[in-house]
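Hey, can you fold this one?
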Amino acid sequence: MEVKVLEGKIENDYKWNPGTAVGRFLTQMREKEILAVRCTKTSKVFLPPQSWSPYGNIKMDRFIPITAEPKLGAGTIVYQAPWNMPEDLKPPYMLAGISFAGADSDLIHLVVAPEADLKALKPGDRLRAVWKAETTGTIRDILYFEPVK
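Sure. Predicted structure:
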């Protein structure tokens, strides 16, 4: 049997319902506000929010704004561009867990700086969010985080 390979591109529009917790998180991103959710049983705070507490085994709907300064949790420097990299970004950059005081989980996002600055970063170093000028309600409304000097 002969195998034929067709090269091309397929585009498919689709709609995705993120649910109440992630939906509210993304909606507030339009306002440049970061929301987390607190488990009323364990007091753990989840960022990004999720609907169900894995520890308390209950639905979570107590949203709290995160206003603390972000800090680097842990990260790895990326040197090769993945298929889904934002258009205006070029390696190297850091894929990192971004920690916020008051949250029990980290937000996974990008840290952008010159390579030497990325290599010098250590857990606990202060970061600053760089937001899009016009937000639309996606996680990419935060373009990236950068080190605070």
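The first helix runs from residue 19 to 29. Let me know if you want another pass with a different chain boundary.
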